[in-house]
Fold this protein.
Amino acid sequence: MIHEAVSTRVQDRVLIVTIDRPDRRNAIDHATAQQLEAAWDTLDGDPNLLAAILTGAGGSFCAGADLKAAAAGSPPARTDRRGQFGTVQVPPEKPLVAAVEGDALGGGCELALACDLIVASRTSRFGLPESRRGVLAAAGGLIRLPHRLPLNIAKEMALTGAPQRAERLYGLGLINRLCEPGEALAVAFEVARTIAENAPLAVAAAKRVMTAALSVTEAEAWALQQPELDRVRGSADYREGIAAFAEKREPKWQGR
């Protein structure tokens, strides 16, 4: 279905979400943030959707907040529930893969960091140039980047404001897949489809445990993992996975 600023389509149980404002380099205004939030609500609420991809139209990922709209008096590019860009403070519960072409600078970089995995073309660039403009990268970049890169590299990006090429960041582990220009969406789809082929309850539990473990002690992480483990082991999918392995066949997941 096509919206004013965001388009969505479903393929093989993967929701593909495209920021469709190429004339603004896919910069996000308030309406776009609302539409992104609606897309993630659809993803989390539909049991037939198991993963998602976020990308941008016209060969660019996202230029962050739409400063022209802000200067014209538009409300901030955020929503009450999911925060900046309708995404970064409360990303979707299900796995989200960024497919990056062109530049992901400022808020665009922060939007990519809100995703679980990043696929990027060799010619794409990532950066937090806010310090060059006298502002703060307050949409998650300063919080998430130190978890995704060595601290000194994260500080280099935030303090110098200089954009970094995807090839360098791939070598440092920020980017999961590096591809040729124009192929980011196709490669991201293969990654997302692989996720969608796995047991949905186990995938969701794994994401919750890893996300929560970032902000607690190791002892607390073991404790919060236990109820997730109990739920997975008590599921029909757990029994199906064991049976399929023993019978040397592909499992048929039910999501329960």
